[in-house]
């Protein structure tokens, strides 16, 4: 992890130690890390209010942002997104709009179909809300439901920010009713941002202690000057000069800061990418840095790339194709949880996955979950990045790989599968992470690793020196003959699972079957109705039965009833007809006997 970066949780922990260790912690100090997470009641109320909004302006704006990706994602037969696709789309939205990695929406390892980790009670909110909405829509979520879910999550982020600011006001002994001076408001904003940037790992007991820690923070925090200039732009002169402002004004400032910090943080992420890619040359592999060079940067410079090899392996950032010369996968490392800031209970701020921007271009142009390999190759050849010029001619081997992928899925390439993500990694090795097979990695923060293993995620100087020496010896023995080809595995994992894909295949004949049922019911009812013109009571019952059957079929086709409900009127109709025919047959001999008796009389 890079030492000058102030967005990572581990860096935040070091800063907390350096900045706040000299302060005495009083018994009544406010521990921001121990702030209670949002309640189920607040989550439910947020979702309820957004669902009631219906066609509101805000939801329409969210729908407009979601629409391009929604159109390109695989859907079920009802035109809705299944569970894994919903998580994927929500993740994409919050990353692109705010730079937020919503906890509970991240892929579990490298797959979206694995259930999210639930070992942290603070990560329950997104999964809980998604399940609530999916319970209301048995066959997946449509665009309007997705927009309501997004809005509800944004509301919860705002609610947490509001609670944090309230805690800051109470700590600084500022009234929330009425107005306060702009000087006091600036102190509140500065305290809020200090707590935000050190991942809430701070205890403050009084307004005086808060001032001392703000002063120490401004002097020792790397990048403080740049952050302060950025905050001035966010505030837009709102707190400049004299005068007074209310709580609502300060709340809007911290809200804007939270929504825009991801874009500001990306500057530091770009610096991290640049320094890593400067070390790429020695590896002879694009997007790779030898672990020995990675550790050497720590041993002989101010950079702190010091994560243990075991921790790096679980993060999924190691390429161990050559076990004697492990390498860091740059795109995987930059976006890994160890470089995230756990700013809020609901979300972390992480470096952007640059591959998502490339995928967004593909999705916008194709507007389909799959496409012919030739069309994809044409589009990708025209995509330019900071490291790849366009247009370009894709290597023949890369085009051949794309053709092979299409053979697995009936002549088209699925955009949202592991194999295509792997192909994108080969096409853009510095931008697109390598997608490991499900279950082979376990991304986690350094704190989570420590809690789970009881060991620090950081390697000691001795451990790093040994790996460097061993790698040097192995390199000399092999003549530094590294293989330049990137790894490729044939494991496929689709965004839509096998069960959901079956639902998609069944959807067409399901709709056709419902139409056939309705036609048979209506036509059959008319034919029977004509034959019962002289039997009014039976005719009325048949009409009622036909109407009931048609209604049930329509409701089942809309997904509001299951197949058991569909069969009830049909079974009832068959039993009724059978019993009616038996009753009619039994009545005929009685009538014949009655006539015979009259004749004999």
How do the helices and strands line up, and which of them pair or pack?
Blueprint: H1 9-20, E1 30-31, H2 40-53, H3 57-72, H4 83-98, E2 100-102, H5 124-136, H6 143-171, E3 179-181, H7 182-197, E4 203-204, H8 207-220, H9 224-235, E5 244-246, H10 247-277, E6 288-290, H11 291-299, H12 309-315, E7 318-319, E8 327-329, H13 330-334, E9 347-349, H14 354-366, E10 370-371, H15 373-380, H16 396-408, E11 413-414, H17 418-427, H18 446-453, H19 461-478, H20 498-531, H21 536-557, H22 563-600
Please give a quick description of this structure.
About 60% of the residues lie in helices and about 5% in strands. By secondary structure, the chain is mainly alpha-helical.
Mean pLDDT: 81
Q: How many helices does DSSP assign?
A: 22
Strand % is under 5%
* Number of beta-strand segments: 11
Structure classification: mainly alpha
Q: Overall 3D geometry?
A: globular
Radius of gyration: 32 Å
- State the helicity in percent bands: 55-70%
Largest sheet: 3 strands, antiparallel
Tell me what you see in this structure.
The chain has helices at residues 9-20, 40-53, 57-72, 83-98, 124-136, 143-171, 182-197, 207-220, 224-235, 247-277, 291-299, 309-315, 330-334, 354-366, 373-380, 396-408, 418-427, 446-453, 461-478, 498-531, 536-557, 563-600; strands at residues 30-31, 100-102, 179-181, 203-204, 244-246, 288-290, 318-319, 327-329, 347-349, 370-371, 413-414. With 601 residues, the protein is mostly helical. The strands form five sheets. A three-stranded antiparallel sheet has the order 6-8-7. Strands 1-4 form a two-stranded antiparallel sheet. The longest helix has 38 residues, at 563-600. It is globular and about 100 Å long. It starts with 8 loop residues before the first helix and ends with a helix. The model is unreliable at 1-10, 22-27, 115-121, 501-509 and 595-601 (pLDDT under 50).
